[in-house]
Amino acid sequence: MTLPHSSRLGCKRPAFTLIEVMIAGGLLITGLSVVTMLAFRNSRQWQRLGHYQLALDELDRAVELLRNADPGQRQQVINDLRASSLAQDRLGECKLQAKVEEVNLNAADADDPRPATLVRLSFDWDRPGDPPPVQLSVWFAGAVE
Question: Within the chain, where are the H helices?
Fold first, then answer.
């Protein structure tokens, strides 16, 4: 017994093939758009990471300047702190600031004062969302003159 042409197992109707191609194309376009979006987001994250690393390098440079300065010259170094030209070129408008606090580490014993200086360094630049600046604190024995 012979089956009619439309009921053979190996035969497909052309409309089903068109629907399959359209579904495959839709899945392909969706997949490509997701991959593209993730690639752009990843590149922005790498750029932000590079900016953050540059900010840390600037703070490290400021700490080294303060450590290498004589205790009598530290206040002058703090007053002269500026962001490097590399940071200004890559980050645009950026600020390197320092706040100095004089503290007594041995406040319980007034007869044996141990003066120390806490220098709080901060580095800020224009970023989306206006996050707080990157900060670093450094302790020095004695007072800043």
Answer: 14-68, 74-79, 85-91
